[in-house]
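# nightly structure sweep
# worker-07 picked up a monomer target from the shared queue
# config: single-sequence mode, recycle default, output format = structure tokens
# input follows
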Amino acid sequence: MEKAIIVKNITKKYKLYNGTKERLLDLILPKSYGEDFYALANVSFEAEKGDVVGFIGINGSGKSTLSNIIAGIVPETSGSVQVNGQVALIAVAAGLKADLSGRDNIELKLLMLGFSKEEIKKLESEIIEFSELGKFIDQPVKSYSSGMRSRLGFSISVTVDPDILIIDEALSVGDKAFAEKSLAKMKEFKQQGKTMIFVSHSIGQMKQFCDKILWLEYGMVKDFGLVEEVIPKYEAFLKQYNKMTNREREQYREERLKKQQESLMSLQEA
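# output follows
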């Protein structure tokens, strides 16, 4: 099978600062200021062409960070990503200019993708029709609700017909009817053999739509495999996690972060 996405040992480090002063000192002085925070630590997985891979995990597990790295929006700190084909990321407000109207955002995005004026004119009407934004298409995006921004972003991305589609919680906002319409479009893409990454908290949508699941936990891969293998484990974990007190959750988090550091140290020593 042809590989669509190859993610190898991806690590993403951010610095957490206690205010602007500490940030400036870290820039100008040799001593390191701020606390290292690893959103991802040594993450690897592969997706075949035509796979639909679901990213699951509790909040703060690195799902959106990994999506943004695969889409080329955020650079990795270390490791490598190989993507074979054009990628479109659909997330609330991803790539949209707040001061521009919906129509202007469509035209700008299509120009950046290299479409001609004639192609843009044709695609623009298709995008507006799919988005169901009506008269709001000529209003500035900053006046849109999160659901409206998601509609616009989704409509642009699916109409330009990418090879790889990354959907990051874009169907969790807005009305149910548009979400169902969007899922139908995604099923159409699946039948066409397109590769997709699907980030959602909806286990039902994962079961319905995905072939494989990548379970991330505090920036690390907890499990990766077929839906029917991974989802039952994740559901059992959630049942247990939801019963934990805040203190027990914090202890669990500290244990997992300790393992994260051990993983990073073993990678550095290798």
